[in-house]
């Protein structure tokens, strides 16, 4: 950490970088955020695009009723992910320490097409150092593991005024880590922390400071409470010499230094993984994992013991998933348009709280199947803040992600209406572009039972999760089936400048616990992005909360998808100038996979990634919002953030296109 003095404006910090206004349980009006290789080996083989296209069954009201049984899924057309080996040679590779990019000076393919000028730092298979050489005909292997990350030690408290804020006059229950006091059912003996006069609090992330957990959601709450909690879900993929680990975390965010620590631990234990991708769901109903939401501002809420617990759970999950690998017989992948499931379009499951109203309406899903037609794993992608419980909840939960994953694994359950059968296996939910701000707050969800849930309740969270889960099942039922899917990945580290003076202060004070770098033009941090190809599915990780319009456009109203909403609120006192909005191609346009997914908060959480054309700071800057919809700027690194992320992504996409022979 740097010691250079900075001008601090800490007395007027915004509300804990979690939400600009406190939500009320009956109106859901809040918004939310958080901050914070050379050689002669050939690159990966190229894959032919699938010969079938995705289709979707839609209705005007309620979810579709397309069957999602194994028979329905496997009866779709099967394609083979064929390969055409490319040969390359590279003589030198230099790294620019400012941008973090590598430049390859020579190299060509067997078709005569030279590789791009800049080679990503990690290219698997085909890494010039020989760490992940290609293996012709290697089968794809996959394994999963699920580990609880509910804190092993925390104490409860009594919220006398029911505002979810620990205040003077309110008392904690000094019962120790197990939260059992003498006389409680199950009490055996005093445990650690019991009757010591200290509050062993687990501070929940998001919305505001001083929100300690009272417990974990029980099976009796909501529509499908059983099995809720907080989880690290690992998927390990291996093909030949290439091994990838993806871990989703029911947390608000996970800094890049945590990813680096996990990689070091795996290496120390002798577990070789070419790339680890950690993805925090940005869950606002789990413990602080970034340091922003402690008892009060400028006091970290990230408990060191909990940090150690989460790190160990991730390492254990990856090791167990690796040991559980089996051969993948086929990959099923598809997507559906969420706006076609209800008369109110995507407005039945999501709201956009900042103009222009742009929502990526596509929900994608993939399924890995073994030789006995059993599901190894499923992955679902959609961008929405897990904060349906709003700011008055004090029970740990994975919010709507629980209902979504449960639907894929076990099927959906409604009060009266029939549900859909699940596909089994382990489900990972990957949150996509959630900036700008994609949220379940401020909207009402209608279920197949005819029930409508508006306020921040478990019923609302479960309803949204199950509806999204049913859409994902439809995506699989109507998806493409790919035999012998091919795996490859590229990754790149790069630097981002920290212009936000509040963030600078938090880095300097150690509230944000990570390394910073001082250059002539300011403070920098190092982060990364990755591009993963799995058959026709392509995943691009982004280290923060990307505005959907940066991924898909929509400034012309083409991604409005809610008949009751205007593109720009006529009452907005400072509306965005859509004539100044950037023209395409947008981030997803530049990707080349048949199915293109954004992995938000991938290996880092650096706050909102705001379009430059609509960037505006208040006075004083960083600590006050400009008139209109400009909260997100106060919780972002700076105006240049997306341009630098976009440039790093361009390096990966260009190399991947060359490898795959894509135009």
User: What is the 3D form?
Assistant: globular
Instruction: Name the helicity range.
Output: 10-25%
Main sheet specs: 6 strands, mixed
Oligomer: single chain
Give the uncertain stretches in residue-range form: 1-77, 82-111
Question: Count of helical segments?
Answer: 9
Distance between the termini: 44 Å
Beta fraction of the residues?
A: 15-25%
- Overall structural class, as computed from helix and strand content, comes to alpha+beta
| DSSP strand tally | 30
**What would you report as the Rg, rounded to the nearest angstrom?**
24 Å
Determine the mean pLDDT: 87
Strand order of the largest sheet: 2-23-14-16-17-19
Region (Disordered): 19-123
Biased composition (Low complexity): 19-40, 48-109
Protein name: Neutral/alkaline non-lysosomal ceramidase N-terminal domain-containing protein
Keywords: Signal
